Every structure is written in C-alpha cells, then in structure tokens.
Amino acid sequence: MKVGLRTLLERSVKKMGKGMNPIVKAAALEMVERAYNEGIYVQISAGYRSLEEQASLYGQGRVYIYNGKNYSNLAKPNVTNAKPGQSYHNYGLAIDFFIVSDDGKKAIWTVNSKWQRVAAIGKELGFIWGGDWSSFKDYPHLEMTGGLSYKQLQAGKNPHITSPKTSKGDNHIISIQKTLNVRYETNIECDGFYGPKTRMALIIGLQTELNKQFNKKLVVDGKWGPKTKNATVTIKKGASCNITWILQAALYMKGFNPGTLDGEFGENTEMALYKYQKASRISADKLAGKVTWNELFA
Ligand SMILES: [Zn+2]
C-alpha cells in the first residue's frame, strides 16, 4: 500500500523537533506535500539540532572535547565539519531529507532524478541546497540563512526569513505550458509548476522540432535517452527557431530567465545560458549543444 501524505508529514514534524524557525518548518512540510503530489515520497530526517547534539556529530571520526565533555567517537565515520554553532541546524534554519519507498517503509539515499526534483522544489521555496555546494556536497541538506552568517546568528541576530510559499504557480510557466499544449498537442495541466509532465512535454517539443527541422527520425515519446541526446543540434546566438524557444523555456524552468520567450537567440538568452552553464559546472561556452541539452533534461 502507498504511504499516505499524513504519515510523511507527521514523521517529518517529529524529526524536525522543537526549536525550528516556523517559516522554515512550514516550507519543509510544503516541500513534502508538493513532492507527494508529483508522486515523490520524501521525508525530513533532521531539523533543529542542539549544540550538544552538534558536538556529538562533530565528534564522530575525531577526538573532540566541547565544554569540558568528551565527544570523541572514533568508531564512527566523520560526518560533518561543522562545530557546535556552525551549522544552520543549530538555529532551526536547516533540514535534511531523504526519499522513501512507495510503501514508506524503506529509506532511499540514491541521488537520482527524484532526489534532484525534491531539491528543486526546496529551492523554489527559498532553500539553499547542499548539493549545489562545490567543496563538500551535502545532498540531503537544505537551509535558509536569512542572509546571516552563523557568526551573526551566534551573536544573537535575528534572521529575516521569507519563503515564496505560493499555492498558485508561476505565470510564465503557465504560458509555457499553454504553448506546449497548443503547439505539440500535449495535454498537460497549466498549473505554473515545473513537474515531470511539463518536462516530458518540453522533450516532446524538442523531439518534434528535431524531426521537423533537422530530419531526425526520433520517436516522439517525451523520454530523455541516448537517441534523443545524440540527435540534438548545437544552437547559438543568432538562431531563430522553435528549438530556441524550447531552450528558453528549459532555461526558465531551471531558474535562469532568458527574458522574453520569443524563440530568438539574443543577448539575454545567451546570458541566461552562460549563467546556467556556470552554475551547472559544464563548459560555459554559450553554445547550447549536446552537453547543455543533456544537463537540461537528463
Ligand atoms: Zn543538514
């Protein structure tokens, strides 16, 4: 039997503990719910952590004394570089998540497309994702800093936390969804959220255009695989076609706004592409080629 949303929310509340910032807590639960509505079952595994709890975590894999108490635990592996007070968990501003099996009984720690999607929802809600960090990737971790460093938080400053917690979707995404339905005869809900169905519709659009404009013989199934990847063409500044529109829409979905979605590969599209490539740590060559297409849809 499928795990219920209520169960996931209740477990998450328990794991977050007392001491959470209320907005961060609400955003975390909203994330669980949005993911659930997309068929992704996710649970929060940690939230607020006291300084003593942080000390025992930091003590794993090293010799560590904190406030005169011995927290050394060499039997366990090193799990964090954050000392007490140096983690946003200590201020109730961070959460960790994991995916659960459909029946809710097993934890799944594989960082796959579902995992990435949950992180994306978290980011839509105003979280910073540890999977985006360059030095030490912390895939389960999401935090809101309110613009404050932990030093400022330690000094007692109050973070100003806001979360774009909207139940109505993004207007630009709604218009992209409408265009997809008209142009490619897809039948997706125009709700203003970028979910798996909208992603599929974009791939259908790309496959259709590759067949039409570049005589490729792709099966138009909305699935991203090696055949579609290898059939992609490189487009760059000056291009003007429906494929450019697909690129613009895909960049927009990833949070890189190319300005007007007009199918014209101009200055703004190039800048959005460049920023996306840099953020994704792929070659920032301003060319939308195989690597970029794959990054956008894989
Ligand atoms: Zn964490």
What composes the largest sheet? 5 strands, antiparallel
Helix and strand composition category = alpha+beta
Top-tier CATH class of the largest domain: Mainly Alpha
Q: Give the names of the bound compounds.
A: zinc ion
The parts where pLDDT drops under 50 for at least 5 residues are none
The CATH architecture term of the largest domain is Orthogonal Bundle
Helix content: 40-55%
Characterization of this structure:
This protein folds into two domains: 113 residues, Muramoyl-pentapeptide Carboxypeptidase, domain 2 (2-Layer Sandwich); 127 residues, Muramoyl-pentapeptide Carboxypeptidase, domain 1 (Orthogonal Bundle), CATH 1.10.101.10. The longest helix has 19 residues. Helix 1 runs antiparallel to helix 2, helix 2 packs across helix 4 and helix 6 crosses helix 7. The protein is elongated. Strands 1, 4, 5, 6 and 7 form a five-stranded antiparallel β-sheet that branches. The protein is built from eleven helices and seven strands. The protein is an alpha+beta fold and 298 residues long. The two termini are 30 Å apart. The mean pLDDT is 92. Strand 4 and strand 5 form a beta hairpin. It binds zinc ion.
Short description:
The chain is α+β, with helices and mostly antiparallel strands and 298 residues long. It has helices at residues 5-16, 22-37, 51-58, 113-124, 150-154, 171-184, 196-214, 226-231, 242-253, 267-280, 290-297; strands at 42-46, 65-66, 69-70, 94-100, 107-108, 128-129, 141-143. Strands 1, 4, 5, 6 and 7 form a five-stranded antiparallel beta sheet that branches. Strands 2-3 form a two-stranded antiparallel sheet.
